[in-house]
Amino acid sequence: MNLLRELSMGEIVSRIAAVILYAGIQGLLLAVIARMMGDRRPQYDGRLTGNPFAQVSVWGVAMASLFAMSWVRPMRFDPKQNRLGRWGLVLGAVLALAAMVATVPVIDLLRPLALMLPRTGGYAVIYVLSQLQILVLASVALNLLPIPGLIGGVLWQAIWPGEERRLLRLEPFGLALVIVGIVAGWLPNLATMPLPWVQLR
């Protein structure tokens, strides 16, 4: 909880901007990979878009602003449409998370462009990009957990493809457990760890 006392308003605002970017990219990656595997359900649900407001989770934003860890709004898949069957759901989730990690070095390429902006604006953009890198790494690690509501929760849909309604009822409890784990400090927080390749100042 010491982390909360050390947060500045600027840091919270930067994390909110970062999580909006994160949600848009991560949600789009999930939907694109599902579509490539033949599953049109995310597309029909309006998730095949980079619009972050179609992907963002309100509780995910709250956790990101305070603890730099987040998740996107749970996405529904149809294992019957997936070319690889129900285990294609797990592969798609892993590929989407791996692709998200791959954006971390790409974000570094945007820093010189930010320096072309007016000084104050450029520094603000660089700070948001740094927060985005931390948020991506922490959130990908979090979403590997096979908890309903997180991306890794698709594991249960692969194991029990006919139990979608039951899994949907478990999502609020799963996310509540995640929130408690983050607040209580049971889950490692990358925001408090030194990351040498991320320059916040």
TrEMBL record:
<feature type="transmembrane region" description="Helical">
    <location>
        <begin position="124"/>
        <end position="155"/>
    </location>
</feature>
<feature type="transmembrane region" description="Helical">
    <location>
        <begin position="12"/>
        <end position="33"/>
    </location>
</feature>
<protein>
    <recommendedName>
        <fullName>Peptidase M50 domain-containing protein</fullName>
    </recommendedName>
</protein>
<keyword id="KW-0812">Transmembrane</keyword>
<feature type="transmembrane region" description="Helical">
    <location>
        <begin position="53"/>
        <end position="72"/>
    </location>
</feature>
<keyword id="KW-1133">Transmembrane helix</keyword>
<feature type="transmembrane region" description="Helical">
    <location>
        <begin position="167"/>
        <end position="187"/>
    </location>
</feature>
<keyword id="KW-0472">Membrane</keyword>
<feature type="transmembrane region" description="Helical">
    <location>
        <begin position="84"/>
        <end position="104"/>
    </location>
</feature>
